[in-house]
Amino acid sequence: MNRTGLIIALTLALAVGLLFGIYPELDLKLTAWFYDAPSKTFPLKLNALAAIARDGAMWIAWGLALPAIVALLVKLARPDRPLLMSGRAIVFLLATLILSAGVLTNLTFKSYWGRPRPVTVTQFNGDQPFVAWWDPRGSCGRNCSFFSGEGATAFWTYAPAALTPPAWRPLAYAAATAFGVMTSLLRMAFGGHFFTDVAAAGLVTFLVIWLAHGYIYRWPSTRLTDEGVDAALTRLATRFRKPG
Q: Per CATH, which fold does 3-241 belong to?
């Protein structure tokens, strides 16, 4: 999580945002690669193996978060015991997952940014007009296309990758990138999202992780300690366990 990664992410965000803002039809052209016009459908969404791969990707991502979830629950149930894993890792992993794959996607953009999904627009046998990524005035009422929650969950694997030993970190980042890209391509192939939906998911998630990593680990003024997190959780759990 260094400045080089941030510069790359911001450069990609600017390039993708401007290119697809000026030429929004590029989203339609990329999506058309996965669409079969004669059958008027996205064939891969009917493929059982592809569906298993989609579900499996989410299980993998949540499996990486499971140790932090278990450690937190055990601590809340038994505040007298030390944490089962690094306190900073628990905060970092769960906070970034909640923010990127929950708050910023499902509770914010997907609820109020009315961009229709590819499978529902007229160009792909739907009944809603296509809108560019930057336009929130689409006709989708709820659970809309921008931006991808599953894409954000897949790219969240950058967070556990950031906690791997330095010697393994480049490989972990490469694996997280490949995992996010493949999961995002599946969402596009199913007609669930446009390219800009999954690109935004990856870039926003990376920025959330980069900022959280700096806040928790790197910046002296905000840096947390494992002991401090443990003590804070102990106080929280004890407070809730007090009668009355």
A: Vanadium-containing Chloroperoxidase; domain 1 (1.20.144)
